[in-house]
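User: Fold this; tokens only.

Assistant: Input:
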Amino acid sequence: MLSKLEFEQQQDEGRLIWEASKSVASLPPLGRVLSAVFNAEWRSVEKALCSHDVRAQQGSVGRALISLLGHVENGLTSGGSLEQMFCPMLEHMVKSKDQGNRKKIVGIFRWTFAETKHGLLLATSLAAIVGSLKVDHRVKLGWCILVRELVEREFVLYRSSPNGQTDEELTGLVTPLMCFSKCVHPLVRIACNESSKQGKQKAPTRLTMAAADCVTVITKGLISDPPVTPTKSTPDKLEKNEERVLVSPTSRSSNASGRVSFISEEAKASTSGRETENVLKEQGARALWDSLDDIILLVTELQEWNEQARPLHARGLRQVLMRLNHLANYRESLETRSKDAGSIQVGVSVLAACWRQYSSLILLEDRNLVLNPDPVIQHWFGALQYWTQAAQEMDATVTRRADEMRGYALTCLALTLGRLDPRRLEEVLKDIEPDLLQSLMSQVREANIEVVDMAMAILRSLLFRSSGVNSKMEEIVPVLMDMLDTRDSAARAVVHLVAEFLASNPTSPELEKVLARLDSEDPLQRRNGLDVLTELVAVSTKSKDTVDTPLSRTIAAHLFDRLGDEELTNRVEASALFAKLDPTFTLAQLVRLVYSPDARKRSAASSAVQAVLCNHVDQCRTVTVLLDCIRDLMAEVASADRTRGSSKGGDSLDLDRVLGLVATWASKVQDWELLIEVLLDKMYKEASNPVIPRFLSHISGQLADLPHLVFPQIHQRMHDQPRMSEEVLSNISKNEDALAELLFQRLSPLLVLRILPLKAFNHSSSKDLYGGMLDEAISGESQDQGRISTITGLLLERMCNVWELDDVRKIAAELTGRLLPNAMLSAVSAALEEAAHNVNTVTAKACLFSLCTSLMIRGKETLEHPLLAQVRKSLSSIILWSLNSLKSAKEISKTQHGCIDCYAAMICAEVGTLGLVSQLPSKPVQSDQKMKKLIEEIPEGEWRSHANGKQESQKRWEILCSVVQCVLGSQPFPPISATLGLSEVEKGRGDVQLAPEVYRVCMANVLISSAQKISASARPAYAQAVIPPIMNFIQTSSASKLRGACFQVLFTSVYHLKGLAIVPFAADLLNLSISTIGGRFSIEERTAGTRLLASLLASEDSVLEKIAPYIEDAQRAVATVANMDSSPQLRALCEQLLGCMTRSD
């Protein structure tokens, strides 16, 4: 394209003259013509264009213009593209800052439109360029500038052409301007898509500004009268003669909207073609209506461009956008019902009337308006005054129109004043400002929201402009303050002005007046005062996160009283404001108010604390301040409790009132990384602070979901702590304070682990928690290497270290039980086996506690682990420990009780996962059956689960069967000896004895313990498996001590299993107790039988119904013992029982 501009300079002027006289076929080359035009001076081109007949000009410029016109007409008539001709010309317009180039090209195109007979084709060809993907931004910029100039100044564009000059593609286009109206959509797309990004804000470029203005001019031209008829005056003179004519709003003329008019008196005098003009106007208005969506997009873009630099102008654009959206909604409502031409015409007329004015005021580049805005401002100020006075004089039927016109005038004032720079604005306001302010203040008192909002926007812009702010505000603030005495539209409107003034003048005495209203007895004044403070906080936090500390404390001091306000809305608004104030000053008082006896204050304070937690920007600081406030309040309450002589020591403070608010905050936290670091660091530094663990427990769910943040912090802390030894313990035990501090330091990371839910320990991939221990457990490799480098290894070390502090060891054992069985059972079983061999009660108790925790929490997962068999061997070995000395007897007894609890936990886990079971054989094994396993005597198919009806493996009942058989004496000693680690040869000997009596009594205690712990759903299964064989053993056994233990098993089963689990055996149990009470048994057994009877009589109605037929027998047996027995203790017990039975009868 540009290569056509590169040609040799014309040397022979005579040759050009000769070529110009030829036909179209003999025209000079286009490149040579364009070069002549481009190289010509603007004055030469101007002179040629202004001559009476350009074709008669004999100069080179004139001939070049004639040749250019010939090329244009040739291209138009032949149907070819003129892009190769127009693009160089458009680019030449903007390639330099020389205005001569712009004037020259614009003048040539105006002349071409005036001279050619193919105006529609020329406009169509020109319109095709802007939507082309081939042209660059410079060409598009030149196009926008050119078309704007043409639409604003060229009369021919508004003139209809004879039908003979249109082709099929142009059938619906009557004027060249209508051709350009088809470019609105691509121009709007350019304006929206080609803007530059400055952060989140859009900024216009030279191209987008030109495109936006071009759209505005085109759409305005569709509904405007054409400019003056072309004359031979120069373009400069034409510009000087043009002026903006504004019509009074009361005028009835068609030009009553105050638009820019270029119509000369001569043009007005011409009335020919009036009907054609009316048709063209209707078509233009309808084309504007069809472009409504594009206009809305354009105004939206303009508003975004002006939001930062020209806020008042942007506010006016927002009002324009609102009106356009109303029209769009109106159009959509028409589409949902049958279209009515009259209804559509209403929308078309309203849009045309509004857009005539708005389009004149939203141009980005408008020299006339910027240089001489006074007529426009005076016009709309006069319109505002007129309609204000009219609203007062007219009746209610005209008031709505008056409100609309005032809103219309205020919008136009905002658009005009908002585009002026500070210096120009001061010049404009020099004479009219007092009257304008007074008029605006009168609008503020109106009821129409649109009028009030626009008046306040203009007031704010004028009062807070860069010069004279304080003086203007000091004059008007007293008036604004008076408006806060009532609750009306005026009061709501001035809130923002007063707040913005106070934000820039925090020491102003007006602040005290606002605070005085906040404390007023008048609820309306309190509400207004609170609104001002709310807006003040919002204004003060626009550029920073929180209000400055002095102002923050002043506001907070008055807001505390509003938490008890009678009005709910006041309490809610006051609560929300605390989020923007300094938490170091507000949270302490808010926490105290949470415990206020006043329910309103308590509720509002809770909401305020929640608002501070959720919305304050510095969450780390807020949380630490909250923890300190709770700690300090807890210390105060503890001191008061000690003064009153109470032993609660601060426990009377219900921490959940405050900490219960944490859950809502935790669910909204997005970034936990820094928060977790701060919280855990505070936990370690203030290890004795009881508030922090409680706080962490309320966010344990969130912590469990962030193992990659929590576990590394805990691991590092535990790793940095020294290993406890005899030397360390002996040195520090002399100082109680140091010992307490050491205890808290070692407990703090464990307490964090303790508050985590179980799911946190299921993260098997966590290197800090498990490392490679799970992989080693699966592969069977040794876990000793590197174990200490994980949390699991450190927990095991603290649990098994005999020199560790007792509280630390206990919590470490509990936490070890929460770990995955594959990670902990290998080490725990090995430690327990070693402790059993060495009679190490300290390590044994820790391992037992860990195993019980794992069984109760993990259940089946731990129960079915292969290493549990090794654990049972160690349990049996510990149960058979001998009491070597009185000193160690107590610890050995505690350890053995731990084994009993561990066995009970196994049974609970086993029965709890299997459902109902069949009854075990109750007949004890005779001497010739000792080597025969009892489990093999159970008929095949008898072990069935009632849940699914499928055969259950006997192995799943191994622990329960083993314990019951051991108590009954049905369990041969070889299986028991196997748990003690005897050889296979010893296990195969036929003369092995049953388990020792002390072991069998311990197994009975296992049944007692498991009966106390068994879950409700597993009670029937447990009763079915235990009660029948135990009853039969009591009837057949001669071992008094074992029978007494079995009676205790039955008593505990009746007392704890209860209800339906006991009903099937209730009658047998009652008969057994009756026979025992009056039989030849020891005092201990008869006493146990009496207690069993009492337990049955105190059972639920279902059990009493079952034993009702035998109550009289029981009563006689009890009466006999009460009257004749030699044991005073048994007689007394039976007398009490008999008295209860007699009263119940």
